[in-house]
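Continuing the series of single-chain predictions for the mutant panel. This is the parent chain; the variants come on the following pages.
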Amino acid sequence: MRSSRTIFLAALALLMAAASSAQDQPPDQTVTNEPPKSAADVRPGHWHASGFVGSNFGAQPASTAFGGSLAYLFHDRLGAEFEAAVTPDFHFQAGPSSTFGADGTPRINSYMANGVWAVPFEGSIDWRPFVSVGVGALALRSGLAVGSTNLFDPDDSRFGANVGAGVMAFSGSWGFKADVRYFRATGSYNPDSIAYPPTPTLPTTVTPAVPASSVNAQAGAVLSGLHFWRANVGLAIRW
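Parent structure:
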């Protein structure tokens, strides 16, 4: 009985000594199991620029476009971009019978300010799927001769919008960008109201001309409500 009490008192003394020693030591400054910061918290923003070649479709036949864009993404996720493109020879949805002018095609320019949302996937190649939507203008230059001076005048424009999705990929500063976009101008599309210019007469060196008011009316008729798709691909750089 006495030996048991002695062992108990000795154990109690050891525990008290250990507790006292622990209290005298400075606290450990190391924090374990601290969750890592999200990559989005420290990811820098970047400027992006791209030049592209595209194909308009949803019109027959398809027509080739060229353009470029400049964008900035905050934390490589949310940002804004400006995109401009030109289609030198645009064909319309209603087919060859509604081609603008006598066997000719107009030039369509697009100017869009877009909001962009991207999802970065980093690795040896930095992939960034994205979606964008924005507003701007669609402009048409007729390419028809006006008056005796044969000036290519004028063009018409409409408020428009676009929505698209695509992917960017970078290795270092260089990469590529590809997307598909849908464009639409305000108004009601009516290409069948186009009036054709007169047929050339001798001498053949004289270009037929139509009044400026008629050219304006034709440009407004085909540009109002114009809608089409465009697929783009091109080089991109970030900094």
